[in-house]
Design goal:
- It is found in: Cytoplasm.
- Keywords: Cytoplasm, Repeat, tRNA processing, WD repeat.
- Belongs to the WD repeat WDR6 family.
- Pfam families: WD40 (PF00400).
- InterPro entries: Quinoprot_gluc/sorb_DH_b-prop (IPR011041), tRNA_Anticodon_Mtase-Reg (IPR051973), WD40/YVTN_repeat-like_dom_sf (IPR015943), WD40_repeat_CS (IPR019775), WD40_repeat_dom_sf (IPR036322), WD40_rpt (IPR001680).
- The protein is mainly β and about 1200 residues long.
- Among the domains are: about 20-250, 7 Propeller (Methylamine Dehydrogenase, Chain H); about 250-255 and about 265-365, Methylamine Dehydrogenase, Chain H (7 Propeller), CATH 2.130.10; about 770-1180, 7 Propeller (Methylamine Dehydrogenase, Chain H).
- Helices cover about 0% and strands about 50% of the residues.
- It is built from 3 helices and 85 strands.
- It has a 5-stranded mixed beta sheet with strand order 10-11-12-13-17, with no helix packed on it. The protein has a 5-stranded mixed beta sheet with strand order 38-39-40-41-45, with no helix packed on it.
- The longest helix has 10 residues, at about 990-1000.
- The radius of gyration is 34 Å and the shape is flat.
- The two termini are about 20 Å apart.
- The model is unreliable at about 330-335, about 655-700 and about 1005-1020 (pLDDT under 50).
Length: about 1200
């Protein structure tokens, strides 16, 4: 027994970001639950983080003025409030460091935990004589410099009254070092009420906002639950109640947000009716307003920022609108235009928004992420902005066509941009013209009657070569710099050329030209342009055969290293062809079949570009890592990996499958029901023909694996390219061109150098998490590195995510989650359960997921690090040098999807338990329980990547909620199930597994794999029952609860038998003790006794959601009452049990649904994580005596 009493110490929290405020253009303050953090937006570096107390949730941050202490040091008071609590703090920023990063320190001044009512707004107030002019409320950074500190604060309450408190004397000097002690005393007695007033309209408010910073000029805007806003002056002539000066009526729902304009001449309100209304209050009687619709859910807030309105909503978006107050009457019809819709947060709600003076908009989401956006990106790149477009007119036709007549209609047929200073145009009259875009001069490059009335123009990447496809099926090849004589070549029998692709070849003077003809055929040509030669040669190498009914080719890429041509089609197919080394001895033109065909790479949309990248020596075992990228008009980009190419990784090299950090999507909810498996045409691995690139007799298999698809825009992505080692994506959306930096996750626009990453803080799930599981037993990938802490999670957002938890704190960083993988396996399929399993490769694992529509999948998860990586030492908060956690790369490849076994397609998989048997290292048994009371055990065989149904049973006659297993030392296996009937059933499945393995033969079922595994195609197959075993009745059944069992944890205590600890919907915590006897001859387990020996009917105030045992004597539970409780477990000699509460504490995770634990080797104590709407982590440490 472990009798050391422990306590749960919260160490990390990721919940919705509810408050944001800028200190200046560089430092952003954010509130997330009880945590307040200062972040340098240029580098995403955490400058400081404090915890305000377990009962805190920050709703708003209110900044005071900046006080300059010295040339490099400044300080600033600010308030944070939430519910009925308020704290006053000071932020001190020191920029004297030699590094580029400033240091930031927090100092707690006053704590007022219990005001008389819910706080809806707070405001700093000064003496009027101390303020140089009028000072608006909404944009504190725009105020004129104020040197004196504020003298009082105004508090607006939810019952429409205001109190003004005089600030006491500052208890601390401006800090030199951080004050770590958190004041818990109530300092309200130190604050003297100098003024109090109730509005004449007694009502309840959902929002309120002050305007001005002196008591004499203070106004309050009240957003009521009765759908209208009230404006009233706080300081008035007499009487206890202040009269309402203006009433703003028009909304059809509760007001959730209200803001003043900087000058106080307008008010912005947002409501439950999904509208934004701007009220012009300059007129004393006739108040006018404009209404803006566009959000698809409730609107939480809207700020008036110069020419823009910036709103956030429950639909998780941030929208930018034109400010109608600054719109001319002639533009009134466009006054409500939405200029931008920024979508990046997942799930529900963008809760917080802040705008810097430089126009950087920060948004905080319900997913726990913080995103940065730029206001100047609204204008930059838009095609309807005059300053960003330039009209180009052809020169007078007589300057290059002397014989032109009035009947000759001249216009541009096609054009290409060959450099920043030069562009080339083909005209209707058959001319190819070159324009010097700097000097704005024109010259004639070539004329041919073949180009009259039609031409398809394309240039080489270097811009030296221009190729025009003709209506007659010929190619016109010209040199922009006249390096060789123009060349005209035949392609195929006078068939119109629709598209031309000029691709780089083996050297500077060699090119591959790919043409797509009107009869849906593709030709490949070899162009040589030797330096100093007056002529060029163009040879028809081969034709490429397209699949039946294939549509036009829109993208092409040539790899001279592997002699491969990759094509992307309009129907979202990617094709690969191996070219012949030479066709000099072949008289007839060869037509080649594709060696690889991947369908639905971008749903049903066009593949717009393809790129192939080889990273030498970065693959597994020092081999080359060969990646392929494609973009599509579905707004996404897709990554693939080649296996089996010369010098590259081979099949099974999964540990380097993915080197991306974040936001990896297999599909998207906007994709018309796209399923991850639809991209797999023949198997989980897209295989080419059984041939080697260099030797068809060698039988080498070429494989192209689809790793992930990531959607970044609702518009089109048109080009993918590499610049300075970073992946850049060119796209078009809503009349706007943009370039997106995928490695840094932000859009490149004017001024984007202000921050490196648009994701200031990694997001978690956007909806409730239903299951999370740590990867226990993971090994360091390099000697000297700490054990990686990896966990997988899934939930209501239908996403499978894998994170790395970074447990240490340094001077400039907090504990953190690093997103390694973000998959959406299928649309509308909630992930309810997941479990890990292990392979013979220490860097490769299997992950099984289950959920709605009876969906269960097997994933192969491989981890890797750069071959050149060396462990770095960093300094933690205590000044100790510790090894940093390895920056992992992770690949997650779907191997198979389990077939249907239930009659009802709506059946849900409620829980999973995975185990392996001795002597069968590549066979994984997955016990699954279903909402239709079914109990099934599936075999997943690594050898064929397939599910086979091994055991099928039914019990409880209710929805089964929990399943677990226990492997006995003797070799037997017990399975435990629990359902909504409150009963726990114990099953001996040893014999059924033995019988199944006797009849299971890989050779016998190979032919049935296509139908027994549904990793193939769109149609889910039904499970074959060739080898299914029955179970009969459970060995024993125990009534542990009055209703559903939500948490079940089973542990073998040794001589004390088996203990099953459970928690249920009845708020009860139960302990069941089980004794077993192993019959070695019959290979059966007999349950000699089973009894619920302890039950605490009032363990929690609401349904218990999860139960775990961290050792043989301590249990942790969590409940819908948002508490974590630790219990001491004492197993009595008479076979009974007793439990006593060790501690309980509030958790900042709404709707907690799942909990798991992992033992951290370096810390010698367990880590517990609870997830729901967010996640919170606790170190289970020995309690201080």
């Amino acid at each position: 027994m472990d009798n050391v009493h422990r306590r749960a110490q919260p160490v990390h929290l990721t919940t919705p970001v509810t408050a944001l405020a800028y200190h200046d253009n560089d430092i952003l303050l954010s509130g997330q639950g009880p945590y307040l953090k200062a972040t340098l937006i240029s580098t995403a570096e955490t400058l400081g983080c404090i915890h305000l107390g377990q009962d805190w949730k920050i709703h708003q941050i209110v900044m005071a003025n900046v006080q300059r202490i010295s040339e490099s040091i400044e300080a600033r008071l600010f308030m944070v409030y939430g519910a009925k609590s308020l704290r006053v703090l000071r932020l001190c920023v020191d920029r004297s460091s030699e590094s580029d990063s400033p240091s930031a320190q927090f100092q707690h001044l006053w704590n007022i935990p219990h005001f008389k009512d819910w706080i809806v707004d707070a405001q700093w107030l000064w003496n009027k004589a101390d303020l140089p002019g009028e000072h608006p409320t909404t944009r504190p950074n725009l105020r004129l410099p104020v040197t004196t500190p504020p003298t009082s604060i105004a508090i607006g309450y939810a019952h429409n009254f205001v109190e003004v408190y005089q600030l006491p004397q500052d208890p601390f000097p401006i800090p030199v070092e951080t004050t770590h002690k958190l004041p818990t005393d109530d300092n309200l007695s130190n604050f003297l009420i100098v003024y109090s007033v109730q509005s004449e309209e007694h009502c309840t408010l959902f929002c309120g906002r002050f305007h001005n910073n002196t008591l004499e000029d203070l106004w309050f805007a009240s957003g009521t639950v009765f759908c209208h806003a009230l404006l009233w002056k706080v300081y008035h002539g007499g009487g206890v109640e202040a009269p309402v000066v203006k009433s703003l009526i028009g909304h059809e729902g509760i007001l959730f947000g209200i803001r003043w304009s900087d000058d106080g001449k307008a008010v912005c309100t947002v409501s439950d009716d999904r509208s934004i209304r701007i009220w012009d209050i300059t007129h004393p009687i006739n108040i006018t307003h404009t209404t803006h619709f566009g959000h698809t859910a409730r609107v939480w807030d809207c700020q008036i920022v110069g020419p823009y309105l910036i709103s956030i909503s429950e639909d998780a978006s941030c929208r930018v609108w034109r400010n109608p107050l600054l719109t001319n009457a002639a533009e009134a019809d466009d006054a409500s235009d939405c200029l931008a819709c920024w979508e990046g947060h997942e799930g529900k709600s963008t809760w917080g928004v802040a705008v810097s003076d430089h126009g950087v908009v920060a948004t905080g989401g319900g997913d726990g992420g913080i995103h940065l956006w730029r206001l100047d990106s609204i204008v930059a790149g838009t095609t309807d902005a005059e300053q960003n477009t330039k009209d180009i007119d052809l020169p007078a036709i007589t300057t290059y066509f002397p014989d032109a007549t009035d009947n000759d209609k001249e216009f541009v047929r096609d054009f290409v941009i060959t450099s920043q200073e030069q562009s080339v145009y083909s005209t209707n009259a058959g001319y190819i013209l070159v324009r010097d875009d700097e000097k704005e001069t024109w010259s004639t490059l070539f004329y041919s009657s073949l180009l009259k009335n039609y031409s398809s123009l394309e240039s080489s990447i270097c811009g030296r070569i221009v190729v025009a496809g003709c209506l007659s099926g010929r190619l016109v090849i010209v040199s922009v710099a006249n390096e060789f004589e123009p060349l005209i070549t035949e392609t195929l029998g006078g068939i119109k050329i629709q598209f031309v692709f000029v691709l780089n070849g083996t050297d500077r003077d060699n090119f591959r030209i790919v043409v797509f003809r009107a009869n849906c055929t593709v030709g490949v040509f070899n162009l040589n342009t030797a330096v100093g030669s007056a002529t060029a040669t163009c040879t028809h190498i081969c034709d490429l055969k397209l699949p039946n009914n294939n549509k036009a080719i829109h993208a092409a890429y040539f790899s001279p290293r592997y002699n491969l041509v990759l094509l992307g089609s309009r129907d979202s197919t990617v094709l690969a062809y191996k070219l012949l080394r030479s066709n000099a001895d072949i008289e007839a033109i060869t037509t080649l079949d594709s060696i690889i065909e991947l369908k639905r790479c971008h749903g049903s949309e066009t593949v717009s570009s393809i790129l192939m990248v080889t990273e030498e020596g970065e693959g597994v075992g020092g081999k080359d890592r060969i990646s392929v990228y494609s973009t599509g008009r579905d707004g996404s980009w897709t990554k693939y990996r080649f296996l089996g190419l010369p010098g590259g990784e081979t099949i099974g090299s999964t540990s380097s499958a993915d080197d991306e950090d974040e936001d990896v999507d297999m599909g998207d909810s906007d994709d018309d029901g796209y399923d991850a498996n639809e991209s797999r045409d023949k198997s989980a691995l897209q295989r080419g023909e059984e041939s080697s690139l260099d030797d068809r007799e060698s039988g080498t298999t070429i494989v192209l694996q689809k790793i992930f698809r990531s959607k970044i825009t609702r518009g089109w992505l048109e080009q993918v390219f590499i610049m300075d080692g970073e992946l850049l994506l060119l796209g078009f959306f809503n009349k706007k061109l943009f370039v997106y930096n995928e490695s840094k996750h932000f859009e490149l626009t004017a001024g984007s150098e202000l921050f490196k990453s648009a994701k200031l803080q990694t997001n978690f799930h956007g909806r409730e998490v239903r299951q999370m599981r740590f990867l226990n037993g993971a090994q360091p990938l390099i000697e000297g590195a700490p054990t990686p802490i990896i966990f997988a999670s899934g939930g209501e957002d239908c996403r499978l995510r894998i994170f790395q938890y970074i447990p240490y704190k340094t001077k400039n960083s907090c504990t953190a989650l690093k997103s390694l993988c973000n998959l959406k396996p299928s649309v509308g399929s909630t992930l309810r359960c997941l479990e890990w399993s292990y392979t013979s490769d220490s860097q490769t694992y299997l992950l099984f997921t289950g959920g709605a529509v009876e969906s269960m999948r097997a994933w192969q998860v491989g981890m890797s690090i750069p071959n050149s990586y060396q462990v770095q030492l960093i300094e933690d908060q205590s000044g100790n040098m510790i090894p940093e956690h390895t920056p992992l790369s992770l690949g997650c490849l779907e191997l198979a999807q389990c077939p249907h076994a239930s009659e009802n397609m709506e059946t849900r998989i409620m829980d999973l338990s995975v185990f392996k048997l001795d002597g069968h290292p590549r066979k994984h048994f997955v016990a699954a329980v279903y909402s239709d009371a079914a109990i099934r055990v599936w075999l997943f065989d690594e050898a064929v990547n397939s599910f086979v149904l091994a055991i099928d049973a039914s019990h409880h006659a209710k929805c089964i909620l929990q399943v677990s297993h226990l492997k006995l030392e003797e070799g037997g296996v017990l399975m435990f199930t629990a359902a909504t009937d409150g009963k726990i059933a114990v099953w001996d499945i040893t014999g059924a597994l033995d019988r199944f393995l006797e009849v299971y033969s890989m050779d016998a079922i190979k032919a049935s794999q296509a139908s027994s595994s549904s990793s193939v195609g769109r149609e889910r197959k039904r499970a074959r029952r060739d080898h299914v075993q029955a179970l009969g009745t459970p060995a024993v059944e125990v009534s542990a609860h009055m209703s559903g069992v939500n948490g079940l944890f089973v542990q073998d205590i040794g001589v004390d038998g088996i203990v099953a600890v459970s928690g249920g919907d009845d708020n009860a915590l139960s302990v069941t003790r089980i004794k077993t006897v192993w019959d070695a001859k019959l290979r059966t387990i007999k349950v000699s006794s089973a009894k619920a020996v302890y039950r605490n009917a009032y363990a929690h105030g609401s349904a218990i959601q999860a139960v775990i045992m961290i050792n043989n004597s301590e249990v942790v539970t969590t409940s819908q009452d948002q508490t974590l409780t630790m219990w001491g477990l004492n197993l009595l000699e008479d076979g009974g049990a007793d439990m006593h509460m060790l501690e309980t504490q509030f958790i900042h995770v709404p709707d907690p649904s799942t909990m798991d634990t992992i033992a951290i080797r370096e810390k010698q104590h367990p880590l517990v994580a609870i997830a729901g709407i967010g996640a919170q982590f606790f170190d289970i440490e020995p309690a201080q005596q």
